[in-house]
Amino acid sequence: MALVVQKYGGSSVADASCIKRVAQRIVATKKAGNDVVVIVSAMGDTTDELLDLAEQVSPLPPGRELDMLLTSGERISMALLAMAIANLGHEARSFTGSQAGVITDSTHGKARIIDVTPSRIREAIDQGHIAIVAGFQGVSQDTKDITTLGRGGSDTTAVALAAALEADVCEIYSDVDGIFTADPRIVPAARKIPRISYDEMMEMAACGAKILHLRCVEYARRFDLPIHVRSSFGTREGTWVVSDPYTEGTEMEQPIISGVAHDRSEAKITVVGVPDKVGEAASIFKTLADAGINIDMIVQNVSAAATGRTDISFTLPTADSSTALTALKRIQGEIAYESLLFDDQIGKVSLIGAGMRSHPGVTATFFAALADAGVNIEMISTSEIRISVIVEQDGVDAAVAAAHRAFDLDADQVEAVVYGGSGR
Amino acid sequence: MALVVQKYGGSSVADASCIKRVAQRIVATKKAGNDVVVIVSAMGDTTDELLDLAEQVSPLPPGRELDMLLTSGERISMALLAMAIANLGHEARSFTGSQAGVITDSTHGKARIIDVTPSRIREAIDQGHIAIVAGFQGVSQDTKDITTLGRGGSDTTAVALAAALEADVCEIYSDVDGIFTADPRIVPAARKIPRISYDEMMEMAACGAKILHLRCVEYARRFDLPIHVRSSFGTREGTWVVSDPYTEGTEMEQPIISGVAHDRSEAKITVVGVPDKVGEAASIFKTLADAGINIDMIVQNVSAAATGRTDISFTLPTADSSTALTALKRIQGEIAYESLLFDDQIGKVSLIGAGMRSHPGVTATFFAALADAGVNIEMISTSEIRISVIVEQDGVDAAVAAAHRAFDLDADQVEAVVYGGSGR
């Protein structure tokens, strides 16, 4: 008998009939002899509707109250799901994040999980019940206030609870069949990846693949918890995210490249004519950090000897652009840079693959493919298992397709039909 | 500095603009130098919408999960209200029933409050914050599960918290100006009652006046807590419900009759031809009690000597009729009664007034007024401060108007404009 943790996103519980279908899947898992713990997101657009209500009442609602408001979303879906399961003749008990022992810090809106003490969940399982837990939410250790975990929060709840309960697997359900070698909307020949390592999955998540959130994969890696990403609209195997995907009974040799990810949500800012003195770059990035902005890639040109000045370019989430530009304007007097350039018509294309460590020439092949496709490279960043380039946004599709083909990722047959977000 | 507890019903927080108006009223109370604790119901039709969702998922949802679902309603309204107050520059903190220390038994759907331990509320007040508390909900002492208090639950939360906090007053806001001598829709000359005793208010509530629920008045009487029933759509004084309304600085002599209440929600069942033996009536009412039915009035005719049989009539909530009839059919063999009669076209008209104790002839005046109005009396029931009669439903309006006039309750000018339910 295994302990299976399942997480269903908002699209899987969008309405009453979706909830009933999910209930049947849960009961089938239970009937197959497993203990089942289910983490559920808010129904469909509930969160957006609640945010809309908040906006009607206050332009800048306090984080504590916004969390109190938003957590009602999972309360509704989890209670309905428990009812639907009861209707099929099985005992289900729903628990809020607080009741499930999800203990967090006090950072409302993006709290971090500090500890998970799932005694009530364990008790429910021991009594033969199916436990339904609200995703995305917890309770602050210090203030006992309700908190939310931010983007991808329900996935993180699922993995954290699965780790605390020492579950055998954490299944993440959405409307997508698994992790693909590229977005099938761009590359129709993209293939579903049967197994992928935590490291590669983290790079994929960080580079724009939206199926799993980075935090949840980090958490799973720390506890060596297998994640199975699959669709709630079918029964096919999805993608397994594990520590070492190529030694556990699979015959395949490790591929050089696991997949091609892309991201259109970033913008580029260039600080032009920064005096080439020690500490100037540091104060630019300190200013941005103080403004709470996460920088992605950074490029600094060699200083032009004649002028003693240099240009610094970096990418950041487009949504943070105006905050960043305002913060940089404020220090123009202090730093004495010449001007700011802003470009939100960019895209990032990333090759991810643990196999590239042992294969020289990956960069050359990648860049040649982009050149053949007529795509110009604006910025480059690399890690052990990833190469990312910034290109103009109109070139993203061509770049992804060219890279996919160059590394022999194209399937013989088109396999995927849907590819989209995974809710929260 | 006083401690004021305010309760706002669903119609007072129906949408964003209502919530903002309520926030202004709360802040005004705070600015006037009071500590303020607010109990809030779910917005407008939220509860009905949630019930509708539950019905789509399951015909008979478990009580525990239904309570989990319904309590999300107050969570939404209280968070929004706290945001609206923050927007006006005051600190507000929202608390669930559980966080506010509302401890109940485990009867889901109609839990009774066992204890109130409002340490977090007191802490919030001590810090100068406005505390917003979810009405209608608590947490079970034994199972730690979320419970709801049933009909009139938010009023009960308000009074229970006010008592535990030793508040100076509990203000119950709705869309009605206060308690009236009769329903102004039936008697346009009805007057707002400035002060009324707990006992009279309990009889009024039990006899169909929907402004305050019986449980909440019982609770207030036990703790001698003044209730002020008023409208959230104006600033006029409403009705004070207190222990002794006629000695505290009012010049008025105690009126004979405080008001005329009516109720169209009951039906009458007659068990015809019950053998006139010891214990037959007892087993009829035991059967009904076992079926969970609350009986209101009972009349038994004197046994007809010739037949040795008698008829027993009683009234009950119309909604419980089919359950009651089914239960009675089941024992027909055992009791050997002849038949059942059912009539849901009845109404109850009640005179309430602590003054009738010292005024003989009230019954005579009441019955004469009904006779003059051409209304036939079917059943009669009395208490120290109340006389109720069952009449045919079409005669209710005429009976109420005639009684109101006979006891000089008509105002010189029409005062009331709205009269309706008070939410939950």
Automatic annotation (TrEMBL), chains A, B:
The answer to whether UniProt assigns keyword Signal to this entry is: no
Q: Which InterPro entries does the entry mention?
A: AceGlu_kinase-like_sf, ACT-like_dom_sf, ACT_Aspartokinase, ACT_dom, AKii-LysC-BS, Asp/Glu/Uridylate_kinase, Asp_kin_monofn, Asp_kinase
Q: Which reaction does it catalyse?
A: L-aspartate + ATP = 4-phospho-L-aspartate + ADP
Q: CDD domains from the xrefs?
A: AAK_AKii-LysC-BS, ACT_AK-LysC-DapG-like_2, ACT_AKii-LysC-BS-like_1
Which Pfam family is one of this chain's hits?
ACT_9
Task: Identify which top EC class this enzyme belongs to.
Answer: transferase
UniProt xrefs under PANTHER family: ASPARTATE KINASE, ASPARTOKINASE
Functional note: Catalyzes the phosphorylation of the beta-carboxyl group of aspartic acid with ATP to yield 4-phospho-L-aspartate, which is involved in the branched biosynthetic pathway leading to the biosynthesis of amino acids lysine, threonine, isoleucine and methionine.
Identify this protein by name. Aspartokinase
**Organism name:** Nonomuraea marmarensis
What lineage is on file?
A: Bacteria, Bacillati, Actinomycetota, Actinomycetes, Streptosporangiales
